[in-house]
Amino acid sequence: MKKELKYLVIHCTATPQGREVTSDAIRAWHTAPYPKGRGWKQVGYTDLIHLDGTVERLVDNNEDAWVDDWEITNGAKGYNGVSRHIVYAGGLDKRKKPKDTRTEAQRKALAEYILNFHRKHPNVRIIGHGDIPGVNKACPSFNVPTFLKEIGINQ
Ligand SMILES: [Zn+2]
User: Fold this and answer.
1) What are phi and psi of 46, to 5 degrees?
2) 26 Cα–ligand 1 center, Å
3) CB atoms within 10 A of CB 84
4) Model-wide pTM > 0.90
5) Ligand 1 centroid distance, CA of 64 (Å)
6) What is the DSSP letter of 40?
7) Fold type of domain 3-101+132-150
8) Could you read off the pLDDT of 69-101 as tens digits, one per residue?
9) 62 three-class SS
10) Where are the domains of the chain?
11) Centroid of ligand 1 to alpha carbon of 92 (angstroms)
């Protein structure tokens, strides 16, 4: 049963600054059987923003205002049926502490992505993973409300 899209949730891959992350790696982390992976049916994110700003689609999406069952990704328990999750490669410094490691290209790609999305879905809230109530995570390692203001979105 499809549900109305309510959230765009932004994540980081929680990998060290400057390290590229492939879609195959994410697929393995999320869908390989435990303990190698998490044993999920689907990966956690719809789109992956690479270090060079390329946006790679991981899970099909028809871009409408509904979350179909085949579009669901496993980014945040309890929110997946009403959310789209996206991720940028990075989010940790070399010592594995949370850090906004977005390259200039990633910031630009993310801004473009969010602005496009917001034009299509003005009522969908855009949040960081750590902004979800009860989630105690630094993900995506930058302040999403501040970034939204920087790119001219007031929600
Ligand atoms: Zn996350």
Assistant:
1) -80, -40
2) 12
3) 26
4) yes
5) 23
6) -
7) Lysozyme-like (3.40.80)
8) 999 999 898 999 999 999 999 999 999 999 999
9) coil
10) 3-101+132-150
11) 12
